[in-house]
Design goal:
The complex is a heterodimer. Chain A is an alpha/beta fold. Chain A contains 13 helices and 13 strands. Chain A has two domains: 202 residues, Response regulator (Rossmann fold, 3-Layer(aba) Sandwich), CATH 3.40.50.2300; 154 residues, Response regulator (Rossmann fold, 3-Layer(aba) Sandwich), CATH 3.40.50.2300. In chain A, strand 1, helix 2 and strand 2 form a beta-alpha-beta unit. Chain B is mostly helical. Chain B has a domain of 210 residues. Chain B has a two-stranded antiparallel ribbon with strand order 1-2. In chain B, strand 1 and strand 2 form a beta hairpin. In chain B, helix 1 runs parallel beside helix 5. Classes of the chains: A alpha/beta, B mainly alpha.
Chain lengths: 378, 305
């Protein structure tokens, strides 16, 4: 037994020293949701990120599961910063978790690259020079949905979202662009699966359209129940409820629904084509927008490491700000508050053979940034 | 207009309640007969739903899938009772909580390992799709009506089982005096296995019924489990009647509270705040209800004091 322990210890010393010999220059701590409800999102972000940095000897990554619980995410971040000594944090899916982790991490001089959550607080007054959002500001896709609703001629929308930071950002975003009236506005419980009560309200409200933001498994239940309810009004929403991982579970109930996204697998550029085919051959499934966000986060990190060392924080930050990488989304740059300026597309759910997937119908908002730039003093 | 909405929401509440009943009936039986706190009850809900999704995917038949959920959860129940739970009856409640919590983790990870982290597809049969007029202008989802009917049929079935059959007499005797009935020659360990499997299969069935309109994914059982515990505490631990009345009470309170509280608050405060505060209080309402009932009747509505 004693010999075994010594051998193991020796082995550990050898492997760890060989890491240094390989010349790892940067340590990434990834906190994301890998178990429980919503784990599909975290797994996609992780897989996308890992695909982007595959074969890169200069980056080492620690991945930890936050179980979608803010307290666990905070503990993990503390441990990664204090004992693992990571340089860059990333991975958080949910805005309430991001709000709990990000401010403390960036104030301790760490970089945080968000592959998903983009709460308005961190884009406006709470913005920070070390915080970069590679996905979107939370309002963005919903603003595009509001814009689409106008062009589709909707006059009276019923809108619903879960009662948490991103849910509030969603409804605010839709209302900012939508010019019609609201037939009703409802906040549901986060993690709610049954929408009988809300669907009855929609039926009674006389709305001509429904906008909803229900990410992860929440949207599956809503779409199925809505299509069974016999209500025949059009539905529009952000891509989160119509993404590759979820469509299979929603089934034909989603066919024809318009949804808005900054990414789609049919965006025509070399980086995206390579990403889609590499992802499929690596993991044997179609990538989702979360995977594309994780992938872009990895590529952004690599691009900053070309001309700067992580020890020179100011230089590294400048390199990140340049966003000098070919994004799967095509044109991509950062606004002053470190949130993307990008096109947001309107997609439609279609069937390719037997697989449900999305096809771009039009560009919803061109070179779109966010309204919080002015509030950010940086 | 509001009357129609009210009746529709009342039906939604009852449907939610009957589903909770399927979960809490098993939980309360297992606690009442064996004195076991089974945190892993939600995992049987998940196992039922996954069995159903698997069989529906292979055969395309919803009815076979429902059967599979019953059988799958019952088999899992028997195995887990014999291998693990049996060792816990004599331990105190803390050991039981720890062991069954570990079971949740094992079963969830096992299901994820086999099926993957993405939700599975399970849908309702064509014959139950759409809505049906109930009374004049009130139309209601056929499938939800079917869930309500199933729930009531199972409640009646359980009532007959407990009050009229030999097995039921043994179960009641087991609740009252464990030593005495084993002294009278009843094979108590077989009885425990049967009760555990019965509870597990009811949970599995409700998982499949609900999975078809919500989503079949890892961890789907735990939110329901918490509500099922609220129900059996309200109804009185060990009482099937209490579980039934508690379920309907919780289902209706939750649904009506969530819908009408924001509207009610709009009379007093600004609409945008009312929506937000109303939804928050709405989701707390069942816990407030539980606290109130426990103040008046500390052992629940039908519990033995």
């Amino acid at each position: 037994m004693k010999r075994l322990t010594t051998t193991l210890a020796a082995l550990m010393i050898m492997t760890s020293s060989s890491i240094f010999a390989d010349g790892h220059q940067l340590k990434v701590g990834m906190i994301t949701t890998l178990s429980g409800g919503g784990s599909g999102l975290g797994i996609d972000v992780r897989d996308g990120f890992m695909l982007a940095i595959k074969g890169n000897q200069k980056i080492s990554v620690i991945v930890k599961d936050d179980q979608r619980k803010p307290d666990i995410a905070v503990q993990l971040a503390d441990k990664m910063i204090q004992s693992d000594k990571v340089d860059v944090l990333t991975g958080i899916i949910w805005s309430n978790l991001a709000m709990a982790v990000v401010p403390a991490a960036v104030n301790q001089g760490k970089f945080y690259l968000s592959p998903n959550a983009g709460p308005s607080q961190l884009a406006g007054k709470g913005c920070h020079e070390n915080y970069f959002n590679v996905a979107w500001q939370n309002d963005n896709l919903h603003e595009a949905a509001g814009g689409y609703a106008n062009s589709a001629g909707f006059k009276n929308s019923f809108i619903l979202a879960p009662n948490y930071p991103a849910g509030k950002d969603a409804l605010t975003g839709y209302k900012r662009f939508f010019k019609g009236k609201l037939a009703g506005e409802v906040y549901t419980k986060l993690g709610q699966k049954d929408y009988a009560a809300e669907i009855a309200q929609i039926r009674a409200s006389g709305a001509d359209s429904v906008f909803f933001f229900l990410p992860g498994g929440m949207g599956i239940g809503f779409m199925k129940q809505f299509s069974q309810s016999g209500i025949k009004i059009p539905v529009v929403g952000p891509a989160f409820s119509f993404d590759q991982g979820i469509l299979k579970a929603v089934g034909d109930a989603a066919l024809g629904v318009k949804n808005t996204s900054q990414w789609s697998k049919d965006i025509d550029n070399p980086a995206n084509k390579k990403f889609v085919s590499d992802f499929q051959s690596e993991y044997g499934r179609l990538p989702s927008l979360y995977a594309s966000q994780g992938y872009d986060t990895g590529k952004l990190l690599i691009s900053a490491m070309v001309n700067a060392k992580i020890d020179d924080k100011d230089k590294f930050r400048d390199e990140l700000r340049k966003a000098n990488f070919s994004s799967t989304r095509g044109k991509f740059s950062f606004d002053k508050n470190h949130h993307p300026i990008q096109d947001i597309y309107v997609r439609e759910v279609i069937k390719e053979g037997k697989t449900l997937t999305n096809k771009i119908v039009s560009v919803g908002l061109k070179d779109h940034s966010n309204v919080y730039v002015a509030e950010c003093k940086m | 207009m509001t009357n129609i909405l009210f009746i529709e929401q009342l039906l939604n509440g009852i449907q939610f309640g009957t589903m909770l009943f399927l979960m809490s009936a098993g939980l309360t039986l297992i606690f009442g007969v064996m004195g076991l706190i089974n945190l892993a009850h939600g995992s049987f809900y998940m196992i039922g739903a996954f069995c159903a999704a698997l069989v529906a995917g292979l055969t395309g038949s919803f009815w076979l899938a429902l059967g599979a959920s019953l059988c799958g959860a019952a088999i899992a129940g028997v195995l887990i009772e014999i291998l693990i739970i049996r060792r816990l009856y004599r331990r105190d409640h803390l050991d039981q909580v720890l062991a069954t919590f570990a079971l949740i983790l094992l079963l969830s990870e096992g299901v994820r390992w086999y099926f993957g982290a993405f939700p599975l597809y399970l849908s309702i049969p064509e014959s139950l799709n759409g809505t049906i007029p109930i009374f004049e202008e009130i139309i209601y989802s056929k499938y939800r009506l079917f869930i309500i009917l199933m729930g009531f049929l199972i409640a009646i079935g359980l009532y007959i089982l407990i009050t009229k059959t030999r097995l039921g007499i043994r179960i009641r005797a087991g609740q009252n005096d464990r030593e005495m009935i084993s002294a009278l020659g009843v094979d108590i360990s077989k009885l425990y296995t049967v009760v555990f499997a019965l509870g597990a299969s009811l949970a599995g069935l409700s998982g499949a019924l609900i999975g078809a309109i919500q989503s079949v994914e890892v961890g789907m059982g735990e939110p329901i489990l918490i509500l099922a515990f609220v129900v059996i505490v309200i109804g009185g631990i060990g009482s099937i009647k209490g579980a039934f009345i508690g379920s309907i009470l919780v289902g209706v309170t939750d649904t009506l509270g969530r819908v009408f509280l924001p509207d009610l608050l709009k009379i007093f405060i600004e609409p945008s705040y009312a929506t937000s505060i109303g939804s928050s209080i709405g989701s707390m309402l069942i816990y407030i209800l539980m606290a109130l009932i426990l103040i008046i009747k500390p052992s629940g509505l039908f519990g033995k004091s």
